[in-house]
Amino acid sequence: MSPLSHSVSLCWLFDIYTYTCFTAFVFNVISFFVLKLRMTSSWSLTLTQLRSAERPPPHLIIPPHSRGYPNNPMDIIAGFKDRTIAAVIDPTVAAFAPLLKAKKDYIREVPKKSFKYGETDRHQLDVFYPPTPPPTSTTKSLILFFIYGGGFNTGERSISPRTFGLVYACVGAFYARKGYIVIIPDYRLVPHVRFPGPAEDVRDAVRWATQNVEDLVSPGSPAPDADRIVLMGHSAGAAHIATLLFHPQVLPQDDALRTRIKAAVLESPPYDLSTMTMEWPTANVHATYWGTLEEAKKDDPLNLYRRLPIEAVEKLPKLLMVEGELEPDWLIDAGRVFRNEVKERTGQVPRKIVALGHNHISINWALSSGEGEQWAEETANWLEDVLN
């Protein structure tokens, strides 16, 4: 190639390079102004919405998590392959915590007060009051106790700091908005208590409520109906409710408190421990709580129920069974055994609600989040049907 041809080629390449740079510059400038225009329009719209008296209330503003985005918590937990409780706890909490934080004001605007119902620091409870006035001045509100779980050795009515204390306030707020006066007590935990201590704590919390009805009233909320009490519990908490109802020494058959308890909602308790061995990760805690693993199997909810005289069975409150669709297999099997036992003894199959898409942990973390609440809506409808 001649020097002249080489120079022409270089000039031609330089012209192409210059043209390309110029084109890219023009494109970036245009993109900048288009983006700015869009941001300005979006910001103006936001200011208009903020100034508007017609802006939807906070609980109707759906955060991105619940609009079908990849971080929808129900979509996240649906992808978990391992359904064991230990495997799903942390990722489930991580999935729901952002959504609960986004609903913080909505949850906390439900009135709440705390009281002590016993001697120790674990004998405290929170009362959540319906935030809207009753339809008529004569309407009284059901009292709903929620007893959380935690494997018998963990749990508290206000879990912090991961959700800024929004769990289990999310449960209290959800049912308070349905018109219930909701009470969530703490109770003693392993290793500081043995069976049936926590069930006795639940009993004492219920008795405290019936003896302190003046503390269950808040300005604008309905008066409590201390003769219509619902016990709702999850996991170990549901086991404590079952112990309270099925153990003759915890709540004697002639105790007037029994007549006030109209319904019990049992969310995936360990009904049947017959298959548990000491190789199970939770076996040591169960053995510590009941005394030995054999004692645990003898006094689990299923066997307490089996030993009840038929006269006592017939006086039990209405029972509702709830379980997550994605529970561990052993819990689903235990629920099936218990349900069949109730059918054999009473001739009736207890109602069961399956919380679709839920694992053992998510079932209550979802409440007040706007996601995965259908099972709780069905539960509220069931309570309405059987109690009214």
Please give a structural write-up.
With 388 residues, the protein is α/β, with parallel strands linked by helices. The chain folds into 2 domains: 1-55; 64-387, Alpha/Beta hydrolase fold, catalytic domain (Rossmann fold), CATH 3.40.50. It is built from 15 helices and 8 strands. It has helices at 3-51, 73-78, 85-102, 104-108, 169-176, 197-211, 236-246, 257-260, 283-290, 293-298, 301-307, 310-314, 329-346, 362-365, 374-387; strands spanning 112-116, 124-128, 140-147, 181-185, 223-234, 261-267, 318-324, 351-355. Strands 1-2-4-3-5-6-7-8 form an 8-stranded mixed sheet, sandwiched between helices. The longest helix is centred in the N-terminal third of the chain and has 49 residues, at 3-51. It is globular, with a radius of gyration of 28 Å. 36% of the residues are buried. Mean pLDDT is 85; it is low at 1-69.
Which key features would you list for this structure?
2 domains, 15 helices, 388 residues, Rossmann fold, alpha/beta, eight-stranded mixed β-sheet, globular
